[in-house]
Amino acid sequence: MSEENKATYRFEITGIDCANCAAKLESKIAEIEGISNVSLSFMNNSLTYDCNHDDGKKIEEAVRALAAKEEPDAVITAKGHSHHHHHHDEEHHHEHGEHYECDHEHHHDHEEAETATYRFEITGIDCANCAAKLESKIAEIEGISNVSLSFMNNSLTYDCNHDDGKKIEEAVRALAAKEEPDAVITSKGHSHHHHHDEEHHHDHEVSEERPVHETELTRKYRITGLDCADCAAKLEGKLAEAEGVSAVNISFMTSTLRFDCKDEDLAKAEEQIRAITAKEEPEAVIEKFPEKTSTETVKKEEPKTDPMLIRLIVGAVLFVCGLFLSGNLQTAVMLIAYLILGYDVLYKAVKGIGRGQVFDEHFLMAVATCAAIYLQDFKEAAGVMLFY
């Protein structure tokens, strides 16, 4: 997709029955050729995606046709789109209403606050309904906007003032820990929207950095935990004020901190730098680069084994073996297969009841299979859990 002619399209979408249906439709839409960054929010009745502006009408027709096929009751209403044009290496963003004609007259929004879009990977959520409920709760946090939590893509994005970024992230993590204790949130960086007479969008996951010249006084450290290059640049400015240091440089791309300092001032300078960093970027970690030796060897990472795959294989083998057995031995083998395959489903069902989510898919699976066990149809219980 050409960045020169990229556009984000927004729609209101209603008539979808549940969050699971929304997640499935989102997954189908993402398969359309030429489309990217699809986000369908069941709670907010919103659909957004990116595509080439020249293909906008064709892709919208494809989206509407797919929605009509997968969700006949869905109603899609266009809410306009926004362009990202690049002139002189700067990105200009302007909005359009529900029509597609554009004479390239730039309308620039001027805001005082510096806003940013924060992106996270989020895993450990049980189902699309749980994701939709958590999305709705996050949207209630003060200072946050444009919340989108995709169960299918394991992604969470939201907008907020950059100065409030850490505070709001803490609130999001606390809320997720309360509502979905098993959820794991991993930061994927954020992008800023700076307003200087025009709106410029800068993504700080990739940045061009100035060359660094090292001398015999240069000290080198590894620094991790910084959110973006903009944060690194601000911290670099603060560290430059420390007494006894000069030529301070932080490379966000290589996670490297360099500064010049005399040997006799090093201990004091390092103490100041750690204190300033702890104040400005509490999650940042500074450590000395380990000295490499000639005998140092690189350990190959062993391939990870998927526990779920092992469970499926063991459960399937026991289930097939049980089909050729009879009596108490068959009962025992089928029950073992059932527990291996479904212990986590039963656990999540009980946990869901404790949170008031009585009729989620785990609860229904537990009821169905426990009913089969009650009727002494152990093959049915193990088979249903295996194919689930």
In words, what does this structure look like?
This protein has 388 residues and is of the alpha+beta class. The protein has 4 domains: 1-107, Alpha-Beta Plaits, CATH 3.30.70; 108-203, 2-Layer Sandwich (Alpha-Beta Plaits); 218-288, Alpha-Beta Plaits; 307-387, no CATH class. The protein is 38% helix and 28% strand. It contains 10 helices and 14 strands. The strands form 3 sheets. Strands 2-3-1-4-5 form a 5-stranded antiparallel sheet. The chain has a 5-stranded antiparallel sheet with strand order 7-8-6-9-10. α1 (19-29) crosses α3 (128-138). The chain is globular and about 80 Å long. It starts with 5 loop residues before the first strand and ends with a helix.
Structural class determined from secondary elements:
alpha+beta
CATH topology of the largest domain: Alpha-Beta Plaits
Distance between the termini: 38 Å
> Which percent band covers the strand fraction?
25-35%
Shape: globular
Q: Helical amount among residues, as a percent range?
A: 25-40%
Order of helices and strands: EHEEHEEEHEEHEEEHEEHEHHHH
Mean pLDDT: 77
DSSP strand count? 14
Determine and state the CATH class of the largest domain: Alpha Beta
Instruction: Give me the side-by-side strand order of the main sheet.
Output: 2-3-1-4-5
Count of distinct structural domains: 4
Uncertain ranges? 85-95, 98-112, 194-211, 292-301
What is the C-alpha radius of gyration, as a whole number of Å? 27 Å
Main beta sheet = 5 strands, antiparallel
